[in-house]
Amino acid sequence: GENVEQHPSTLSVQEGDSAVIKCTYSDSASNYFPWYKQELGKRPQLIIDIRSNVGEKKDQRIAVTLNKTAKHFSLHITETQPEDSAVYFCAAGRLSGGYQKVTFGIGTKLQVIP
Amino acid sequence: DGGITQSPKYLFRKEGQNVTLSCEQNLNHDAMYWYRQDPGQGLRLIYYSQIVNDFQKGDIAEGYSVSREKKESFPLTVTSAQKNPTAFYLCASTNRGQGNEKLFFGSGTQLSVL
């Protein structure tokens, strides 16, 4: 099965700086890579996702890059704000028949210091 | 908090007891999932179902059982065979088709052993 490793497990940045979270995956057949944000006491929510036929995707201050050859993908948050403080989970897996089955990383706790 | 509802919010299990966690969605989603969240271990897939009356084991199905008799409902039973059931349980659903892959999570159930 798929194995996803995520690091760092904790990350502290000053407000306005950039934050980068990195993940690696093991299954070369994985074609779907979502990122979820979980604020304290709340449910996880999708913030961005990327498919294997795309190398990079950006949405305002958030971007994700994918290197299929090296089997790693990264989340980049620019101009961080205190409301970015949360746990971020990467995931990797397959979209098949319109459905998904992904494996999650252990999560990165991001703290943005005002 | 509409869309996908989990109950109860907190649940306590005695030794040797089976307990059932409820998950209901009114999003007309075909697929439903159960995840277990432990500190430092991310989200691990227990069971998933892509259609009524059909479900598949995830990565950590031992000691758990599910049913999918209705499209809207996907209850999870934690059996006495699950020796370490204390965790936060998240139910999720998703629709099929490109652009609909994101998981919608419920607010979770915290299960503890007495």
Would you summarize the structure shown here?
Chain A has 114 residues and is an all-beta fold.
Would you write up a description of this structure?
The complex is a heterodimer of chains A (114) and B (114). Chain A is mainly β and 114 residues long. Chain A has no helices and 11 strands. In chain A, a hairpin with a 4-residue loop joins strand 7 and strand 8. The termini of chain A are far apart. In chain A, 35% of the residues are buried. Chain B is an all-beta fold. Chain B is built from no helices and 11 strands. In chain B, strands 2, 4, 5, 6, 9, 10 and 11 form a 7-stranded mixed β-sheet that branches. Chain B has a 4-stranded antiparallel β-sheet with strand order 1-3-8-7, with no helix packed on it. Chain B is globular. Chain B starts with a strand and ends with a strand. Classes of the chains: A mainly beta (114), B mainly beta (114). Chains A and B meet through strand 4, strand 5 and strand 10 of A and strand 5 of B.
Radius of gyration of chain B: 13 Å
Task: Report the β-strand fraction of chain B as a percent range.
Answer: over 45%
| Helix amount of chain B | under 10%
Question: Most extensive interface: pair and counts?
Answer: A-B, 24 and 25 residues
Features:
A: mainly beta; 6-stranded mixed β-sheet; 5-stranded antiparallel β-sheet; B: 114 residues; 7-stranded mixed β-sheet; 4-stranded antiparallel β-sheet; 51% strand; globular
Write the layout of secondary structure elements.
The complex is a heterodimer of chains A (114) and B (114).
Chain A: E1 4-7, E2 10-14, E3 19-25, E4 32-38, E5 45-51, E6 56-59, E7 62-67, E8 72-77, E9 86-96, E10 99-104, E11 108-113
Parallel strand pairs in A: 2-11
Antiparallel strand pairs in A: 1-3, 3-8, 4-5, 4-9, 6-7, 7-8, 9-10, 9-11
Chain B: E1 4-7, E2 10-13, E3 19-25, E4 31-38, E5 42-51, E6 54-57, E7 64-66, E8 76-78, E9 87-94, E10 104-105, E11 109-113
Parallel strand pairs in B: 2-11
Antiparallel strand pairs in B: 1-3, 3-8, 4-5, 4-9, 5-6, 7-8, 9-10, 9-11
